[in-house]
Amino acid sequence: MVSHFTVAVLFLTSNTLPLHLQFDNFRGPPPAERPIFLVDNDEKDRVLFLEALRDAGIKNPCRMFATGDEMIEALIEVLQGTTPPLVCFLDVKMEGMDGLDVLRWIRLQDALSEISVIMISSCQDPRSMHDALRFGAQCYAGKFPSAVQFRQILAEAEKFSAVACGKSAFNVPCNLLLAMHPALS
Three-state SS across 85-139? Predict the structure, then answer.
């Protein structure tokens, strides 16, 4: 079973309002071995996604789902202790539970906060883009990202996961959090 513990850190912004960041410390496989999750109701798009991922040289295992409900079932398994995905790609427009519904569900689960969520769509609907940002997606991309974009997305997902796991985003010698609390490094 995966062991989780939480470290709360308090920062003061320039307006002296407290900003609470909560880091879930996951100790599991390295990012290159964590799966990538995709939900898309179109089988052809799932195949094209996998081909584009492989063309980009990304070797992470990929789990694909035809419905939002299927992805949520897999994420419930993550909450029960299986390896979390490095990143979830969600098709915005799907029958039944759409990508924005799945995004909202993910962001309601504190234990899934380390997972980057990327919305993908063949349309650039401003309302969907606004909702994706408001509900906590890290990125909104067209179908399908280029090889360079895929590599950038995965690199950023690794950084996001590292920070969410409690590793410092400012991992430099003058970082007082690390100097005062070596357990955080």
Answer: CCEEEEECCCCCCCHHHHHHHHHCCHHHCCCEEEEEECCCCHHHHHHHHHHCCCE
Asked if residue 14 is part of any domain, the answer here is no
Cβ-Cβ contacts under 8 Å for 15 (sequence gap 6 or more): none
Listed in sequence order, the DSSP H helices in the chain are 43-55, 68-79, 99-107, 126-135, 147-164, 176-180
Assess whether pLDDT exceeds 60 at residue 6: no
C-alpha to C-alpha distance for 24 and 181, rounded to whole angstroms: 16
Q: Answer whether the bond into residue 144 is a cis peptide, omega within 30°.
A: yes
Q: For residue 92, what is the domain's CATH number?
A: 3.40.50.2300
pLDDT single digits (tens) 50-76: 999 999 999 999 999 999 999 999 999
**To 10 degrees, the CA torsion angle through 75, 97, 151, 51?**
100
The span from the CA of 106 to the CA of 103, in Å, is: 5
In this structure, the chain runs to a length of: 185
